[in-house]
Design goal:
The structure is a homodimer. By secondary structure, chain A is mostly helical. The first copy, chain A, has helices at residues 25-43, 51-58, 62-69, 72-96, 101-118, 122-132, 135-162, 171-187, 189-195, 202-220, 233-238. Helices cover 69% and strands 0% of the residues of chain A. The first copy, chain A, is globular, with a radius of gyration of 22 Å.
């Protein structure tokens, strides 16, 4: 997609008029298709979107989907990778900063929540893609997001542990609990609105971020007082 | 659906042979349709399921869907209500027990996780239903689960607060953070398997429950040491 096609090299692709403010040629069409898919998924909370609707919104011929992305799955994979790539850039920038682990963790939690606010459908999209993808597809998705984010969490927890400030926490369990908290207000938005009559507005998101930060910081803090009362989940299950 | 139809009262519904171990008549068919929808959603992680597939698996004529549930949406709503009803029965039973709040909370967290393990697709199904439902539909769904669970959390936190053991925690924020943690290993199962090469087996679930219980208990514990370092999320966002 980096080269703008010419009629001679790609005669089967119809030329589409590109809006003035976007890059020219196929790249511009590809961008419009990505933006259109994003908008439709956003509007439907990740619900089903037909490729014909994406094309109609992007003012694009369906053949451009094939040219730019191979097929609908390729378009949605490119959309996912674009989004997870921006998430990754955020935490990699943060990881490189000279900041105490606690400050990094606070900013990171706020960053995840605000990213999900912009792309509330991303988790469902990724779940579908991981379920249906072949081996290279799942590897690409994992390498674009889960693996590096897991590594970032492992590093943060190691720094905190070295500083003697937190107890021993499994980074994989940490990953799922922290990301799960950040994501749930979006995937369960219906509960918020209908079950609690609470809009998912900026004020609520701010309060939620503060709650999660506080819960996590206190939750991983060193101090044995809690350990004795936490029974094994297995014991609990078999009671 | 409580009455078994007779050929004279419902001549348009073909009689289907009911397996010996199930209730007879339309109720048995309704049960098989619910079970079939459950199995297909389970197998596909909440992915799309056609009503013809449900009928084929249930050995049921598609007209039985109309008779028992009105339509596919009605069948899926009945499935959701059945599941959320069992979730609600669990925490209502727990709420009625003479146990310290901490024990109730531990058992409750384990209960949510093990319930999601049995119905990992329920959250996506509910999200779709809440998005698409009319006013009575959203009210029924909210009353079957979110509202009473929110009330249970409010009560638990009030008991803990009266015992002087936890800080002031907003029950709505608490609901989304706790349920979100419990649910995410299922909705993001793909990350677990592909990003971390970790199977979602009983051992992992046990460890995860223990992690969440510990994080929550320590996270809401009374003690002001954390408060000073938690900056306002709004300040953080506008930095």
């Amino acid at each position: 997609m980096s080269a703008v096609p010419t009629p001679s090299s790609q005669p089967e692709i119809p030329a589409l008029p590109a809006p003035a403010e976007l890059p020219r040629g196929a790249d511009a069409t590809g961008e419009r298709l990505l933006q259109a898919a994003h908008e439709l998924l956003y509007e439907r909370g990740g619900g089903p979107v037909a490729i014909s609707e994406v094309c109609a919104r992007a003012y694009a011929n369906v053949a451009m989907v094939k040219y730019c992305f191979g097929n609908k799955d390729g378009l949605l994979l490119a959309l996912s990778m674009r989004i997870t790539g921006s998430f990754r850039a955020d935490f990699e920038r943060l990881a490189a900063q000279e900041l105490p682990w606690r400050e990094k963790l606070e900013r990171h939690i706020a960053g995840i929540v605000w990213n999900y606010l912009r792309y509330p459908y991303i988790n469902r999209l990724l779940a579908d893609q991981l379920r249906d993808a072949d081996e290279p597809g799942t590897r690409a998705l994992s390498e674009s997001f889960a693996a590096p984010l897991g590594a970032f969490h492992r590093q943060l927890l190691a720094e905190a542990r070295e500083a003697g400030e937190v107890r021993d926490v499994d980074p994989v369990l940490f990953f799922f609990s922290v990301v799960g908290m950040c994501e749930f207000i979006f995937s369960a938005r219906g509960w918020l609105v209908h079950g609690f009559a609470q809009a998912l507005d900026d004020d609520f998101v701010d309060r939620y971020v503060e709650h999660v930060v506080r819960l996590v910081l206190a939750g991983i803090k060193r101090g044995g007082r809690e350990a004795s009362v936490v029974r094994s989940a297995r014991q609990r299950r078999h009671r």
